[in-house]
Amino acid sequence: MVIFVLTMHATDTYSPFGNWYYTDRTDSSFGTILFFGIYQSFLQAFFMGLLFFVSGYFTLQAWRRKTAVAFVCGRFVRLGIPTLLYMFVIGPVTQYFLSHSWGTGGFAHQWLTHLRDGEWLSETGPMWFCAALLIFSLGFVLIQRAWPPMRPPTNTLPHHGAIVTFIIALAVSTFLVRIVSPENKSVLNVHLGDFPQYILMFSAGIVAYRGSWLERLPDRLAVQWSVGALLISMPLLVVLFGARGSAHIDKHGFDGGFNFISAIKCTWEALVCLGMSVGLLALYRRTLDHQSAWAKYLSDNAFAVYLFHPPVLIAIALTLHGLSAPALVKDLLLSLSTCLATFALSGLIFRRVPFLRKIL
Known about the structure:
Blueprint lengths: L1 H13 L15 H36 L2 H31 L8 H10 L11 H19 L13 H21 L14 H16 L2 H4 L2 H27 L14 H28 L5 H28 L6 H22 L5 H6 L1
């Protein structure tokens, strides 16, 4: 999943869509723009939701091994401290020395300026995910203390009706929130229009762990749900691209509001989120059921890669700036180079530093 994050940010560098610290955008062909649009839309529809699902799944696992106080302290160490490290050190260094998205006057001057004007509250970068996950975890603790948990019967799995209801809940809740908070509106570096999906997927991960669904869900059922949801989503994607190219449709509807386009987009995202999440989890269970030494290395270093990848990615992108190559080629080179470099740096340097080893 972390590799998805890296490829998304590499694509943001060259694509005309999305936001990132550093961009190297040139005029591209229609085919290249179309590829970027489909890839980024498709990935954005599910990959962060799936991360929250997996996080919810392991949240309950960690909760059962610890007291409430130990759980909260552990969450702060693993989520809060790395987020603060990024906000006050990694992010500022990245913006001032690499992307040059801060002003002039010296690093210390700009750092103090952002501290005084409160801009640092929006400087979580990709660590907004960990900040949100920390809040979700605290909310989980409060709910656990207020109401006794209800464990699903061990002999049941979610039925087709439950899956359809979940997709509807994803689509409707996202649509309603985006009426008041459009998808492109950012508050403290988070897009509230995406949070209904994140909250529901996090909650679904907790329920899945209680019912042991990931271990017991038959491959046949997972394939049915995954393929079915993705097939249903395809006509909606065609409608969305047709609307995007139409001169008679207000493009603001893609970001939200009470309109037909937003409803279609929210439904499409819900279908892709469910379809891709179930499909990838089933594929992972089938192919990576036993962890090899190589898979263990990737798993152990994944969080460090997530935390440190922005400066590494931007440094490599700056190196590739002078390369005369199509945007798709540079995107692929940047993605591969960043993956190799960040995992190597994590294993050789980052996780060998005593302080970092405790939080990574």
